[in-house]
Write a structure and sequence with these properties.
The protein has about 130 residues and is of the alpha+beta class. The protein is about 30% helix and about 20% strand.
Length: about 130
Amino acid sequence: MSANKITAITELDRSHYKTKIYANGHFIYADEPEEMGGTDEGMAPGALLLASLGSCTAITIRMYADRKKMNLDTIKIELAICNEEDMTEATTITRKITFGAELSSEEQDRLMQIADKCPIHKILSNPIKIETSF
């Protein structure tokens, strides 16, 4: 794979449905809950998607706040999406952002604008094309 791309490798053996995920020297598991036949030893794929958006949003806000020397202690992102079987082209992700600091309304408004500039938000807000090969 090209060095200028973000890459990940997933592997699934006969372990229902515990999936190994490798990316840039890091390792995590994805899985399904026990009621879906999994072992519940990792986040479900939908939760991983939300985690990507939430962490990207928090990091993007933190980078901006630090550059602007804002007194921002914590950033909390709460996200939700419907169950995977209910997803359609009209699926909505809800995102609630809480700042652990006394910020002016102008600072809060600007940080909310910055939240939408995170790369994962941009990806999820536009049509995505997936090319598959074997």
